[in-house]
Every structure is written in structure tokens, then in C-alpha cells.
């Protein structure tokens, strides 16, 4: 089969649609932004870097990524550790977080965005190795696998919480959850675990609202540290503080109504609209229909990734795709959800659309692995495919 026939043109077309949406939204955002920068040009530059990365990554087969996954994972942990120890001249504290390396001439790089991919590769490798070694599953072996997956995720999660970066930490938890669901672990173990975690989350939220003094007394969580939660639940009471962006985002989306106001006809000023709140720009200028098209585009992406995973004859590749699907799905759900008060604001960008070199590069590296899995898929004469 020719190389051009093996190339995933469907996925390529979906990414091209994201490029168009991103550039149009950013072009509008930069016209009313507090920054005097050409975000469209920078975004296209990062897309170009990502395209080169995808081309290089397609050279290697999924088995190659499986072999180097432990080394990439260790390298990622070293990057996160170095970020914590680095001086402020290299890793400054920005908005209360020490999450970026500042490189002269290259801008800022957020290691966690790349480490997410390394962690997905490592988790996939661990699942494959476990099933290759243990053909017959038992409860004890399932608990062993569960411990491995949690341990692998806990190391980068701990380092990221030191920054601290709650939003990215939640992405790692989402990735872990997706991997656990398809790892083959018995539901009699998974279901109680998820129910327990959900119950703890509801209990903590209840304490935040009804008894914050108990959190201060036993967990030393101060009321001001819960500002984002209070602003999420009652944004009007915190309009001049933590609730400012949420109120502006909802006004922007609501004012777009069905058809939107049209390109460049924004009336609601929203800080940082080119990054975390790019969806608000789309909602205001293109209304419910435009916002729905963007969400449908993400559905097409997830559907395509799911199709590739189902047809992959590499178990490792299928697990990797589930991790990537979990990562992207959580990003979209959280970003859109926080713009309409469905979820608290956590500073998670909208994949492929929000401005941000590290986040975009991380997502395109993930797509490079997907292209590799699709490109190197083999069909056997007596196989199922």
C-alpha cells in the first residue's frame, strides 16, 4: 500500500478545521486584548513546529514508542523536578505558579504538557507488560495492576502539585481514570473506588459551602483559598474578584444568542480571552450555532480516535489512544464547562484552539503518535481486520 493511502487524511482534515477555528477566534481576540501581540502568527508558528514533529514521529512505529516509554517517563520526571529547583531567572513564578521554563528566544515552555504524553505512554506500557506476564487475571493481580497505574501517575502528579497547578493535576487524574477503565481490572474493584472518590468530592464540596471552618481546623485550608469555589457557586457576590471572569464569560456567550454578533463585533471585554476563555469569543461572535459546530468538531475528533483504537492490532496503541481520548475529552469538558458555570475555573485551555505554545505542542505530539499508530497499522490475511 502506498504511503499516501496509509496516511490518515480524515484526522488531517479535522486538524485543519481546528487550525481555521483557532486562527479566526484568535484574530478577534487579539484586536481587543490587553496584549499587543500577534497571537495568530505565533499560533501558526507552533502549528508549524507541531507539523514537523508529527512528520518525524510518523517514522517510528508504536512498538518503538513502547520501548522508549520508560526513558521518556523518567525524563519527564526529571524535567518537573528541575522546574521546582530552578532559579527564578529560568523558572519564574507567574500568577502564583512555578510551571514554566523561560527560554531566551523561544518563550516559555510548560513541561507538564509534554509529561502528560509521556505518562500516557508509560501507563500503556505497564498495562501491556502486566497482561503479557499474567495471562490469568485474579483479584490480587488486578489490585497489583491498579497499584502500578496509581503509582506511575502519582509521581508526576505530586511534582505538579508542588507548582501548584490544580488544573493540570486534574488532567492527570482524568487520564488515569480512563486507563483504569480499559485496563481489564474487575468492575467489582473499579466501581467502589470511583464511588468512594465521588463521595469524598461531594463531602469536600459540602464542607466548603456549609462548614469551611472545619477545613481550616483539620486541613488548614483558609477561606481565601476557596475563592474560586465560592465564585463558581455565587459569582455575583464575587463580581469584583474571583467571579469577574466567570460573569464576563457567561455574558459574552449569552449575548451571542443563536447566530452570534459576527466576526469582530464583540461587546463584552474579557481578560485572557485568547487562552482559557477562547470559547467565550466563539459563543459571542458566532452564537449557539457556532459554539455547537466547535463542540461537534471535537466529537468528530474523538470518534476518529476511537475508530483508530478499535482497528489497531497493537494493544499498546489502543491503550495510548484511550489515554489521549481521556486527556482531550477532559480538556474540552472542563474548558467549556467553566465558561458556562458548569464547573469551577481551573485555567485549562481548549485543545487546538486556545493560544499556548506548550499546550498546542503537547496535543500535536499526541496527534503524532496517533498518526504513527494509524500509518503503521497492518492488516493480516487471516486476522479480524
From TrEMBL:
Entry keywords, A to Z: Cell shape, Membrane, Transmembrane, Transmembrane helix
Pfam families (alphabetical): FTSW_RODA_SPOVE
KW Transmembrane helix (keyword) present: yes
InterPro entries, sorted: FtsW/RodA
Topological relation to the membrane, as annotated: Multi-pass membrane protein
Subcellular location: Membrane
Top-level taxon of the source organism: Bacteria
Record flagged with keyword Transmembrane helix: yes
Main location: membrane
Transmembrane segments: 39-60, 72-94, 114-131, 143-160, 166-182, 189-209, 286-304, 316-333, 353-375
Protein name: Rod shape-determining protein RodA
Organism: Halobacillus salinarum
Amino acid at each position: 500500500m502506498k504511503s499516501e493511502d496509509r496516511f490518515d487524511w480524515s484526522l488531517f482534515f479535522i486538524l485543519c478545521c481546528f487550525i481555521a477555528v483557532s486562527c479566526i477566534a484568535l484574530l478577534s481576540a487579539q484586536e481587543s486584548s490587553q496584549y499587543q501581540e500577534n497571537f495568530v502568527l505565533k499560533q501558526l508558528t507552533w502549528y508549524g513546529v507541531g507539523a514537523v514533529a508529527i512528520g518525524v514521529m510518523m517514522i517510528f512505529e508504536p512498538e518503538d514508542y513502547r520501548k522508549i516509554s520508560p526513558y521518556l517517563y523518567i525524563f519527564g520526571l526529571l524535567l518537573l523536578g528541575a522546574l521546582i529547583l530552578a532559579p527564578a531567572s529560568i523558572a519564574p513564578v507567574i500568577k502564583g505558579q512555578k510551571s514554566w521554563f523561560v527560554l531566551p528566544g523561544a518563550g516559555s515552555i510548560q513541561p507538564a504538557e509534554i509529561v502528560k504524553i509521556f505518562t500516557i505512554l508509560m501507563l500503556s506500557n505497564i498495562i501491556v507488560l502486566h497482561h503479557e506476564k499474567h495471562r490469568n487475571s485474579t483479584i490480587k493481580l488486578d489490585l497489583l495492576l491498579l497499584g502500578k497505574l496509581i503509582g506511575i501517575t502519582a509521581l508526576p502528579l505530586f511534582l505538579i502539585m508542588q507548582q501548584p497547578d490544580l488544573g493540570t493535576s486534574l488532567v492527570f487524574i482524568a487520564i488515569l481514570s480512563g486507563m483504569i477503565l480499559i485496563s481489564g481490572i474487575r468492575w467489582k474493584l473499579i466501581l467502589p473506588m470511583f464511588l468512594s472518590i465521588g463521595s469524598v468530592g461531594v463531602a469536600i464540596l459540602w464542607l466548603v459551602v456549609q462548614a469551611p471552618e472545619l477545613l481550616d481546623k483539620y486541613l488548614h485550608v483558609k477561606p481565601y483559598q476557596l475563592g474560586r469555589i465560592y465564585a463558581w457557586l455565587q459569582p455575583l457576590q464575587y463580581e469584583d474578584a474571583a467571579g469577574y471572569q466567570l460573569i464576563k464569560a457567561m455574558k459574552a456567550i449569552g449575548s451571542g444568542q443563536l447566530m452570534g454578533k459576527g466576526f469582530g463585533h464583540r461587546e463584552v471585554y474579557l481578560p485572557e480571552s485568547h487562552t482559557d476563555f477562547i470559547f467565550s469569543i466563539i459563543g459571542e461572535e458566532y452564537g449557539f450555532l457556532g459554539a455547537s459546530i466547535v463542540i461537534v468538531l471535537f466529537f468528530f475528533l474523538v470518534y476518529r480516535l476511537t475508530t483508530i483504537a478499535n482497528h489497531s492490532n497493537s494493544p499498546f496503541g489502543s491503550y495510548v489512544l484511550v489515554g489521549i481520548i481521556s486527556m482531550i475529552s477532559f480538556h474540552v469538558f472542563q474548558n467549556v464547562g467553566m465558561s458556562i458555570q458548569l464547573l469551577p475555573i481551573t485555567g485549562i485551555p481548549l485543545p487546538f484552539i486556545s493560544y499556548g505554545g506548550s499546550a498546542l505542542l503537547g496535543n500535536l505530539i499526541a496527534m503524532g503518535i496517533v498518526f504513527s499508530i494509524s500509518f503503521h497499522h497492518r492488516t493480516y490475511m487471516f486476522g479480524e481486520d
